[in-house]
Design a protein that fits this description.
75% of the residues lie in helices and 0% in strands. By secondary structure, it is mainly α. Among the domains are: 1-99; 170-255. Helix 4 (42-58) packs antiparallel against helix 5 (62-69) and helix 8 (112-128) packs antiparallel against helix 14 (220-271). It is elongated.
Length: 272
């Protein structure tokens, strides 16, 4: 291995580094790349940035990946691949839809397959950000003849069909729970919690009513149970409101990660 390393350093053997990548030796590849001999020429510089960018991407160090991929010149043979990977890395970093679109729009549309990949990544970016008007205008430009992105298309279709299912309102959830304790939680998709909340309130209401009937409104027993019931009731409304927000975040996280995973698989299928 040391002999190969010496040769790679003196001649910058691209194949040597690619073999490390294919063997999942990311740490070793980065070690060698960080200790490379002084860079000679733009081609070698672009190759080093590309390889480091890919390695950092594989290690899920997306900030470092983007920094390296951004430095590749547009004359490099790896430029298109770098920009496509960079767009996915920016997605994992929760960058804006505009930032990701800029990365993708730097890619030339001269190659018909690359054009389709670029449109799919733009459509993925739109679906993650719930920009459905943009998604609808992009997805109609995709043909169904290329197998390597069929899985991504299926995933995008799945989330597109759910576009109205997760647009629930925290205010509505709170109102439902104000009418019937626990109903807002059921609305938020937490049926078990909703039932638990309802059956917690039922005995409290009975005890409160019994205290009112037997001890009167000014009794310590009634005041105690009225306070407890009020706390549970208000808490039920507030938690129902927040359950919707939490549910939205969970769905958004699932959508983003599932779509980006399929984007990554698409690039692997094409470039490997």
């Amino acid at each position: 291995m040391m002999g190969l390393y010496s040769k790679a350093q003196s001649q910058f053997d691209y194949i040597f580094y690619k073999s490390l990548i294919n063997q999942k030796e990311q740490d070793l590849a980065l070690l060698y790349l960080n200790n490379s001999l002084p860079i000679n020429g733009l081609i070698q510089k672009d190759s080093i940035h590309f390889l480091k960018g890919i390695q950092f991407y594989e290690k899920k160090q997306f900030d470092s990946s983007v920094i390296n991929l951004q430095q590749i010149s547009n004359s490099s043979p790896t430029f298109t691949h770098a920009k496509l990977v960079q767009a996915i890395a920016l997605g994992y970093l929760n960058k804006s839809e505009l930032d990701i679109s800029k990365s993708l729009n730097a890619v030339s549309n001269s190659d018909s397959v690359i054009k389709q990949i670029k449109i799919l990544l733009l459509a993925s970016n739109a679906i993650i950000n719930k920009n459905y008007s943009s998604y609808d205008s992009l997805i109609v430009q995709i043909n169904d003849s290329l197998y390597f992105y069929s899985s991504l298309q299926t995933t995008l279709n799945k989330w597109s069909s759910k576009r109205t299912q997760n647009e629930k309102s925290g205010f509505v959830a709170g109102m439902f729970s104000a009418i019937i304790p626990g109903l807002g939680k059921v609305y938020a998709g937490k049926g078990f919690d909703g039932l638990s909340t309802f059956f917690t309130h039922v005995p409290l209401v009975f005890i409160l009513n019994e205290s009112l009937q037997n001890s009167g409104v000014n009794s310590g027993r009634f005041i105690t149970f009225a306070s407890i019931t009020s706390l549970f009731y208000i808490g039920n409304i507030l938690t129902s409101y927040h359950d919707v927000k939490i549910s939205r975040k969970e769905v958004d996280f699932e959508r983003k990660n599932e779509v980006l995973l399929q984007c990554n698989i698409m690039l692997r299928n094409y470039f490997n």
